[in-house]
Amino acid sequence: MKLKGDYILNGSVWTWDNYWADFWRYRHLTAHLASSSMRDKVRGAGGDLLWIIAHPLILSGIFAVVFGNVFGGGNIAQFIVYVLSGIVVFEYFAGLLGGSLNVLTNAQPFLKQARTPIVVYLLQHSIFQSVLFCYGILGLIAVAAISGGVKFGLSWAVLPVVFALIAITFAPLAIIGGLVGYKKKGLRPFITYFVMVLYYLTPVFIARDLFDSSALKLFTFLNPISQSLDLVRIPLIYGKLPDLVSFSVVGIWAIILWSSALLYLSTSERIRFSAR
């Protein structure tokens, strides 16, 4: 299926140089769309930016009270940070993949009016979700600092690198999800279901040890979300530096996801260019 509104590149030959040069021309549109999405998000929260931060805090508090004594070893203060870190990271993943399924469909009026690179609309969604991720991180750090359930130390210095790596790794999911959601509309329910199932197959609010002692051990090891959570939780909660294995697994996933996203994007845009 070809995307409507055939894209005419500023150049006689389709190349990444020409393509990104065209994207740069529309960089202000990307920023405007991202800020517009953020305004709509705030408006949907009753105009209160604090509610965007408070929502995952309240959710993690409920999980901590209900499951703390079962999965958290009775340490509610530590468990609420454990759960909140899981919610913040997983919601970033789910927002990028599941939230991007309708991006290009919603962008059709723009695509018909101006023949812009579709990456403009896909990356604006990635930027929007990354901003929400930053707000979630602020809430997580605030709760961790006042809860008394974490260990302060030099290990916290690695957290900016960890959060940046997570953002870089999952950002291309907006491109993949947006293209799949538009070109393969029948897969939308399956992707939504996949995200929901993955939530329960990832140690978001259940202790990681329970996954490692079950048949899910290998899956958990290969799961980039699980490894990302280890990168966050080990320095934040336990005051230790994360091991190189977690960094390596997440780094490999970053290469895989970005390579897949750019290849899929290249194929889609070449189709539009050749159909001019």
Element string (H = helix, E = strand): HHHHHHHHHHHHHH
Q: Residue ranges: pLDDT <50 for 5 or more in a row?
A: 1-6
Largest sheet: none
Question: What's the end-to-end separation, in Å?
Answer: 15 Å
Fraction in beta strands: under 5%
Number of beta-strand segments: 0
Provide tags for this entry.
14 helices, globular, about 75% helix, mainly alpha, about 280 residues
Overview of this protein structure:
The radius of gyration is 20 Å and the shape is globular. The protein has 276 residues and is mostly helical. The protein is built from 14 helices and no strands.
Q: Which SSEs are present, and which pair or pack?
A:
Elements: H1 16-25, H2 27-44, H3 49-71, H4 76-97, H5 103-106, H6 108-113, H7 119-147, H8 159-170, H9 173-183, H10 188-200, H11 208-212, H12 217-222, H13 224-237, H14 244-274
Helix pairs in contact: 2-7, 3-4, 3-7, 4-7, 4-9, 4-13, 7-9, 8-13, 8-14, 9-14, 13-14
